[in-house]
């Protein structure tokens, strides 16, 4: 047994016995339902050793299980080995999700304890609903920070310097964005909105921070009424000039700076505010602890539930943001091409290069770009069988050496003052097998087919997903993750509400949305392949059949053609590929070092 994690599980069980609880649910999120939590809220990792970004744990007196999706199955099986924690697979046909599992395995009136700060109100409602539909009930016990009793060295709530960004960068002033939220309130006959999603707050307030690694957000809540804007944030933020200037600017715009811990008290007193009769919340992002206070202790204010309007506002980039994203991709493309040239030359010359060395090199090239603010996520640098883990975490010591054969995958991105990037390239380091070449080609066909899409207004990502999968499906191959996610503007690399995946999401694509295009294929124990570009949704025209949309590819980095099986490619796909590579060379070559530009010219010669 892995005694460290097994002992922690047993300590939790002892605590459960003392409290009379039948189950505990621990999520991998934070009080704002963030995808990537700060170290303080990495409770799943601390309890189990599992480091994937998506994972929730259930502990009963007789069972401990971790629920995660297809991206992390291989990783979870390795990291959970000898911990006594079973893997429960999600996004598979036979999945049994946590609410249904709890109902099936617990008696009527079971006591289920949750850290209400780190469970969304919607997630708790799903648990209750699962019991209700089978004629049972459960008692939800809200126990914030429940692991504090054994996690004695738990990190504190992060507090990093805060900076504001201007209208020249984001295209809209803070008062304009607040006015947009207030228009929503007026249209819905509401008095106020409580926003808890960190990227939504950053967007409305035109502020950025670094409270969560790779995500330029600030841990906070935002309460906007028709007359006031109250920002609940840690006021003991590092005393630097940027933060002081930011607070001064915010106050000049009428923003009240409140302490992060004051939200509870402000909500208890909400009923006394005669101007807030109807308060809007989003249960998907609002944590259960705050939701419970609103429902149980705020008597004279009507709580109206729905989807936050800010997500869609944020997803549709304006002209200034689109311009910044394009400039970011130009600079990012230069770094990528320098990296690809360095990598190929180093491996060909027999230099000792590991996965970690390659990741460090790419990170250093991005760091040279003016306006660089860090990576948009931890660089994935994976050779051979390691690339079969879609979210492989490259170890600093003991990572694989890159050999002059087979496939190497790098998935990476940068945060810049004027945009965010996310790109994956699968690079042949030498001779590849016929199967590797076939898979490489089929995945590329899928990426191109989606990039070429023209579709009617009102089309959702779930309707476009099959375009990227069809080339693989025709050869009875597939991949388990989504095909595309929204990307923020100098914000979170993953955002909604749009996506491209098989799950039914009716959010239509709109001009200005930026979304990834990243089909893949993964053969456990052998290799993984993924090609990824970012796409801008834009107008295509109108005719008697309706209004049409299409995609423009933003990413600028050549696609290696040396291992393509040309017989598998259609003429339109080859034409697209040749145009794309030619465009990359034309835009980047004059700014690249002479040797790299000459190498890129050879790499982008047309094929077919």
CATH fold name of the largest domain, please?
A: Creatine Amidinohydrolase
Largest sheet, strands/sense/barrel: 6 strands, mixed
What is the general shape? globular
The largest sheet has its strands arranged as: 4-3-2-1-5-6
What is the helix tally? 18
Structural class: alpha+beta
The fourth-level CATH homologous superfamily of the largest domain is Creatinase/methionine aminopeptidase superfamily
CATH architecture of the largest domain: Alpha-Beta Complex
Characterization of this structure:
The protein folds into 3 domains: 3-149, 3-Layer(aba) Sandwich (Creatine Amidinohydrolase, Chain A, domain 1), CATH 3.40.350; 163-314, 3-Layer(aba) Sandwich (Creatine Amidinohydrolase, Chain A, domain 1); 316-603, Alpha-Beta Complex (Creatine Amidinohydrolase), CATH 3.90.230. It is built from 18 helices and 28 strands. The model has no long low-confidence stretch (mean pLDDT 95).
Name a few traits of the molecule.
single chain, 608 residues, alpha+beta, Creatine Amidinohydrolase, Chain A, domain 1, Creatine Amidinohydrolase, 3 domains, 6-stranded mixed β-sheet, 18 helices, 35% helix, globular
Strand-helix topology:
Blueprint: H1 3-19, E1 23-26, H2 43-48, E2 56-60, E3 64-68, H3 73-79, E4 86-89, H4 98-105, E5 110-114, H5 121-132, E6 138-142, E7 163-164, H6 167-170, H7 174-187, E8 192-195, H8 198-205, E9 207-208, E10 220-225, E11 229-233, H9 241-252, E12 255-259, H10 263-268, E13 278-281, H11 288-297, E14 302-305, H12 310-315, H13 319-348, H14 355-367, E15 372-375, E16 380-383, E17 407-412, E18 414-416, E19 419-420, E20 423-428, H15 434-451, E21 454-456, H16 461-473, E22 484-486, E23 495-500, E24 514-517, E25 520-523, E26 527-530, E27 533-543, E28 546-553, H17 571-588, H18 594-603
Parallel strand pairs: 1-5, 3-4, 5-6, 8-13, 11-12, 13-14
Antiparallel strand pairs: 1-2, 2-3, 7-9, 8-10, 10-11, 15-18, 16-17, 17-20, 18-19, 21-28, 22-23, 24-27, 25-26, 27-28
Helix pairs in contact: 4-5, 5-11, 13-14, 15-16
